[in-house]
Amino acid sequence: MSNNTLTVEIWRGREEGKFDTFEVPRMASQTVLDIVTYVQRNLDPGLSYRFACWVGVCGSCAMTVNGKPRWTCRTHVDKVADEGVLRIQPLKNLPVIRDLAVDMTEFFEKWTKAKAHFVPTATRHDDFAQVSPSDPKRKEATAGIECINCGVCYSACDTVAWLGDYLGPAALNRAWTLHNDVRDGGQSDRIKAIAGTGGCQACHSHQSCFELCPKHLNPTASIAGLKRATAKAALKGEI
Q1: Which residue among 69, 133, 139, 238 sits deepest, i.e. has the most Cβ atoms within 10 Å of its Cβ?
Q2: Cα(167)–Cα(29) distance, rounded to whole angstroms?
């Protein structure tokens, strides 16, 4: 490596694979996604990875960079390259399709298991619901509403790593936003779903999801709210 180049180690293969090493030119304001794209276009056209918007909106370019899950389009090389070396891997806790691309099926299936979908109580013939932004429950919902399903929190979660049934931070965060949505009619079924095996009580509050969330959300706080909600439901005999 020189001052004008960067040593990059990129994972190749599936669950079983190896790191290939490349020398990539250094440029100003260079992102990790720039690096991966340079390798694919100039050095190894067989490299598989995923991206879409390139501007921090879609979240599809998430990868593990020097041990931490990140959006590669928003991660500047100068901030993460240790001693001029960059190691890029697929997201952890998800099956690898090939190289840097992972299968997100398991991630989204857990949203379904958590019943993290809106259940309407009104029809098209009803007036629009009016919910004040200052309402305490609305504030709780708003605090976690900006999740874009990138999978960073799921990859960072220690509990997901050792407990395969754990629903994960993203699904539980979504369940919490819906729990606080006064328009939603799925409260009872959702509380039962997230109180079971692999539900909110499995969270150990390590806060990796909070520390690494690119949207600066706090799934740990959302899960704590669900823990309180399930405890209240249990005392009332509802679960």
Answers
A1: 69
A2: 37
Q: Which two tokens stand for residue 156?
A: 């960072």
Nearest to 85 by CA among 155, 22, 34, 29: 22
pLDDT by residue, tens only, the chain of 239 residues: 457 899 999 999 998 999 999 999 999 999 999 999 999 999 999 999 999 999 999 999 999 999 999 999 999 999 998 777 899 999 999 999 999 999 999 999 999 999 999 999 999 999 998 999 999 999 999 999 999 999 999 999 999 999 999 999 999 999 999 999 999 999 999 999 999 889 999 999 999 999 999 999 999 999 999 999 999 999 999 98
Q: Are 72 and 65 in contact (CB under 8 A)?
A: yes
Euclidean distance between CA atoms 235 and 228, whole angstroms: 11
Residue 168 CA, chain-centre distance (Å), reads 9
Q: How many Å apart are CA 220 and CA 215, to the nearest integer?
A: 14
Domains of the chain: 5-102 (3.10.20.30), 105-235 (1.10.1060.10)
Q: What is the pTM of this model?
A: 0.92
Closest CA to 101 of 220, 1, 11: 11
What is the number of other CB atoms lying within 10 angstroms of the CB of residue 56? 15
